[in-house]
């Protein structure tokens, strides 16, 4: 009998085209997602060497980072730099025969939201994109990770990627989540625990009762932020929840092909006794709603907590970086998190811009009004998410409460389009990064779950969603 293998080992092994003695492998890539930011030089490289895209049908292109989220966008992109990037992708997709969703296509959206929505993302696959949050797709039991632009060119030309095997880490989340605590809080807690470098050199498999109980949306939120914990990828073994989600998607296999796929997918579990190089265990029942206070996703604290005092940190480098973070954030140690007031609220991104996130927000804000000193926006992750939300009447709830209801895109997750914070503006955000300047020059980001962001928009300051009425 062969040695027990992890889910990561199995997917990796099944895609090895060539393995060198030093461990360097050539991996077959099943799916390649392309967006406008990291692809222009890759297509240019192909052009210069007279090469084609090896498998256009395994490649899907979409614009997301640079698009405006204003309803005016159908009249054209005003920002010159953004317009050039968007037009370049449209042209490249056309020239190389790659399917492309423009900003006027209902299927357009954030690359990590549209892959799963279209059934382009499937269990057991290797999936790459020139984007770090490609780890999102690991929620389907796929090996998915970001690549650099030269690798984008390599994958376009050959449908393969040079890789070395990473180590295996298991993060097991036991027990049941309390009411009001979500997938976002789980992953923020994990990053708080392991730190932003804790996953370096690993692929993380998430398992345990609390993970199994999550919807696909919640699982995507977890895997999305694996990269914030330093991991190459995050994985959750596919199960009935996965199969039910994938089943009716446009590009999912049908009929006999579905049955064959399902049979294979069911084998994609870590074997009993498989070796993990590192194991972390968390108890979901003990998790509170979490708020980030600093400029790294590991700077997290319970909503019931206070802004920590960095002077207490013994490591000098860490201490000075956290002092700087507090200064950047304009916060004083000892301040209660629930006393922090907000100027802006951003609900969206590939972390939390899916339908379930919007439903959670609607539940919190229905019949209420956004605080007079808060400017709040909700940005659906894709045209299909927007359409679904509107079919359910969620947009009416948001607009009646005073939220701005936008067109799909990355929006204020990063300052690459018109949506951005002004210097010193403080924002509750459902996105995944709170680095300095991430949402705009000198902008201050607090990462939270959708329900927590929604409640903060209404109250004007952070509140414990578990007390919400
Ligand atoms: C612009 C892109 C390359 C980048 C990434 O790789 O993640 C972006 O999506 C982000 O979230 O910072
Ligand atoms: S929504 Fe944010 S994290 Fe996701 S791909 Fe866009 S910029 Fe990156």
TrEMBL record:
Function comment: Catalyzes the isomerization between 2-isopropylmalate and 3-isopropylmalate, via the formation of 2-isopropylmaleate.
Protein residues bound to [4Fe-4S] cluster: 350, 410, 413
EC number assigned by the record: 4.2.1.33
Xref: NCBIfam families: leuC, PRK05478.1, PRK12466.1
Protein name, as recorded: 3-isopropylmalate dehydratase large subunit
HAMAP family per record: LeuC_type1
Keyword annotations from UniProtKB, A to Z: 4Fe-4S, Amino-acid biosynthesis, Branched-chain amino acid biosynthesis, Iron, Iron-sulfur, Leucine biosynthesis, Lyase, Metal-binding
Entry note: cofactor: Binds 1 [4Fe-4S] cluster per subunit.
Pathway annotation: Amino-acid biosynthesis; L-leucine biosynthesis; L-leucine from 3-methyl-2-oxobutanoate: step 2/4
Record field: catalytic activity: (2R,3S)-3-isopropylmalate = (2S)-2-isopropylmalate
Record SUPFAM superfamilies: Aconitase iron-sulfur domain (SSF53732)
Assembly: Heterodimer of LeuC and LeuD.
Gene Ontology molecular function: any one: 3-isopropylmalate dehydratase activity
Family, similarity comment: Belongs to the aconitase/IPM isomerase family. LeuC type 1 subfamily.
Domain Aconitase/3-isopropylmalate dehydratase large subunit alpha/beta/alpha per the UniProt entry, residue ranges: 9-460
The protein's required cofactors: [4Fe-4S] cluster
């Amino acid at each position: 009998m062969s040695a027990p293998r992890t889910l990561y080992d199995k997917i990796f092994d099944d895609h090895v085209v060539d393995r060198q003695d030093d461990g360097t492998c050539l991996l077959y890539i099943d799916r390649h997602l392309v967006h406008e930011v990291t692809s222009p030089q890759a297509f240019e490289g192909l052009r210069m060497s007279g090469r084609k895209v090896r498998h256009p049908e395994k490649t899907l292109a979409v614009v997301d980072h640079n698009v405006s989220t204003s309803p005016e966008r159908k009249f054209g992109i005003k920002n010159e730099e953004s317009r050039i990037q968007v037009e370049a992708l449209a042209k490249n997709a056309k020239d190389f025969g790659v399917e492309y969703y423009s900003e006027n296509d209902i299927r357009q959206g954030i690359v990590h939201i549209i892959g799963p929505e279209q059934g382009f993302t499937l269990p057991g696959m290797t999936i790459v994109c020139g984007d770090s949050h490609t780890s999102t797709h690991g929620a389907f039991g796929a090996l998915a990770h970001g690549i650099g632009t030269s690798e984008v060119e390599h994958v376009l030309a050959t449908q393969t990627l040079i890789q070395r095997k990473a180590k295996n880490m298991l993060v097991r989340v036991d027990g049941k989540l309390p009411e009001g605590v979500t997938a976002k809080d789980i992953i923020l807690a994990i990053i708080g625990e392991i730190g932003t470098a804790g996953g370096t050199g690993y692929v993380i498999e998430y398992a345990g009762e609390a993970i199994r109980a999550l919807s696909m949306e919640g699982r995507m939120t977890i895997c999305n932020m694996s990269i914030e914990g330093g991991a190459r990828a995050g994985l959750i073994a596919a199960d009935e929840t996965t199969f039910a989600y994938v089943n009716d998607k446009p590009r999912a296999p049908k009929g006999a092909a579905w049955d064959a796929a399902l049979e294979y997918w069911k084998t994609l579990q870590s074997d009993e006794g498989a070796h993990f190089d590192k194991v972390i265990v968390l108890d979901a029942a003990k998790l509170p709603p979490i708020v980030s206070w600093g400029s790294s996703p590991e700077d997290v604290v319970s909503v019931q907590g206070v802004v920590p005092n960095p002077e207490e940190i013994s490591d000098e480098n860490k201490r000075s970086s956290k002092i700087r973070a507090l200064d950047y954030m304009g916060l004083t140690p000892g301040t209660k998190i629930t006393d922090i007031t907000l100027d802006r609220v951003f609900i969206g991104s590939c972390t939390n811009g899916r339908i379930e996130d919007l439903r959670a927000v609607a539940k919190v804000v229905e019949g209420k009004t956004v605080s007079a000193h808060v400017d709040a926006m909700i940005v659906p992750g894709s045209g299909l998410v927007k359409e679904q939300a509107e079919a359910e009447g969620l947009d009416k709830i948001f607009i009646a409460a005073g939220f701005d209801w936008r067109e799909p895109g990355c929006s204020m997750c990063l300052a690459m389009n018109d949506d951005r914070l002004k210097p010193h503006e403080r924002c509750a955000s459902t996105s995944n990064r709170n680095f300095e300047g991430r949402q705009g020059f000198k902008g201050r980001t607090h990462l939270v779950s959708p329900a927590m962001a929604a409640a903060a928009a209404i109250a004007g300051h952070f509140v414990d969603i578990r007390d919400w009425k």
